[in-house]
Amino acid sequence: MKLADNKATLSFSNGKPSVELPVYQGNIGPDVIDIRKLYGQTGMFTYDPGFLSTASCQSAITYIDGDKGELLYRGYPIEQLATQCDFLETCHLLLYGDLPNAAKKVEFTQRVTMHTMVNEQMQFFLRGFRRDAHPMAVLTGLIGALSAFYHDSTDINNPEHREIAAIRLIAKLPTLVAMAYKYGIGQPYMYPRNDLSYSGNFLRMMFGTPCEDYKVNPVLERALDRIFVLHADHEQNASTSTVRLCGSSGTNPFAAIAAGVACLWGPAHGGANEACLNMLEDIQRQGGIAKVGEYMEQVKDKNSGVRLMGFGHRVYKNYDPRAKLMQETCKEVLAELGLEKDPLFKLAMAVEKIAVEDDYFVQRKLYPNVDFYSGIVQRAIGIPVNLFTGIFALARTVGWIAQLNEMISDPEYKIGRPRQLYTGSPRRDVPPMAKR
Ligand code: SDX
């Protein structure tokens, strides 16, 4: 980051001496006011619950312009990556800073392929769960459990260890997500195949059985690969910030990624795709497009607590570029499967049309986000609703580990330790029991 010519001066109306704060510039996007010395100079903290105006770190990985609806991975626009590259090329880009050439792509693919199996003991963790356990509960456990197999071989301060941990996580997530699915439906696990693509391998582990050969549908394979690209990273969102904060204590990367999975599960974050599809199915059950107006009234009624899931975003105050690409993928998959008349897709398009023209949404700059169409295309592929967020976690793992490794490789990084505004009781003595 570069020191700007500009400086910030903080002055106080009560006569306390003013404070001069340096301003730093990134390569693109907002400048930052460096407040690291503020507490030492003023005895005061800043206050920013939800971090609406706070840059928690400097990063060179992903850039978002919320007003323009722009998303860049290492400078490349998501629209170009999603149509010209595949997920493993995107993983290479996020991890190492550039797209692989043909030779490097073969080498990286080979490395990932050689780590897709998990230790045979992993299957016994699954047996501890009920068959109807939510897959995100299972995945939080399984990914945390990976620590038990690699904890002693992961010195996070060793760049090679950090890199192999990244490869292991990228390689094993599809295997673990498919295992969680198979466990839930009582089918045998399918071992990964080294002769299939990353997303083709995942499709076979999900939908193949030992009873017959599984033929990968290239349209579904490409669609799933694009879904992974669209979800790979997204700046300092809640789960990425969780991974950074967790990893800042020096814990092993598997434990830190498990923390990210737990955070992503929430309906305000990665759980929104599951919540969005459930919402569309509810509206469909209540009467479909004819009922959308009534539903919108509930959404606009503050007391209802009802939100239009898949809409709105902390950063995007314009159309989420991923939503447009997801809608296109949706159309391709539905056409391939002869589901162009899928009532849920038609309903989603009707909801979007109504919402983007409605003053409540226009005023609040609420647009479809990545989760609005992703559920419909995943459901069409055959992925169960309660596994949607598991697919999101599979894809986001590369972003989480790239961000974690970026933080740890910065010699200046410290353990994250925010402060607070205390509004509790001043000091008081414990009364004897008779006086309580
Ligand atoms: C993801 O951060 C990331 O980058 C996340 C993500 C990623 O890739 O990592 O992009 C993935 O999490 C996408 C978002 C998925 N979540 C949802 O679709 C759930 C529904 N959306 C929201 O709950 C909400 O929009 C958030 C949580 C996404 C953003 O919330 P903010 O920025 O905290 O905004 P807010 O809650 O303060 O809302 C501002 C106003 C409020 O109304 P007023 O108080 O001003 O009257 O907009 C309203 C909100 O009530 N609002 C909505 C709404 N989202 C915001 N009203 C109805 N429906 C919605 N979906």
Protein architecture, described:
A hairpin with a 2-residue loop joins strand 5 and strand 6. With 436 residues, the chain is mainly alpha-helical. It contains 18 helices and six strands. It has a three-stranded antiparallel sheet with strand order 1-2-3. A three-stranded antiparallel sheet has the order 4-5-6. The protein is globular, with a radius of gyration of 24 Å. Helices cover 50% and strands 6% of the residues. The site of s-citryldethia Coenzyme A (SDX) has 21 residues, from loops.
Care to give the gist of this entry?
Helix content is 50%, strand content 6%. The protein has 18 helices and six strands. The strands form two sheets. It has a three-stranded antiparallel β-sheet.
